[in-house]
Amino acid sequence: MGQVSDLRDLKGRLGRFAADFTGSLVATISGPKIDDWLRALRLSATSRNNFRRVLIVMFNFAMQRGYAASNPADKTSKAKDVDEAPGILTVPSPGC
Hints:
mainly alpha
């Protein structure tokens, strides 16, 4: 079952990237364009880094196939997690 969810995740992330870069040749996509795209996703640092990881794999594949000379995703910035104090949830007392 793990492989199915991994493939679904990969398809979803790459599908979103492909939809936003429709008409762009793989060889013309730059690191700064990818950085801007990742920041525009407005996701958590972990989710952005997961997108970045998938893009690095995709561009490595493109390089192996001769579609790209380099891996621009490899040159993008890794999102930094911001350490915040954990929140405390409270439940109202009965009768309040």
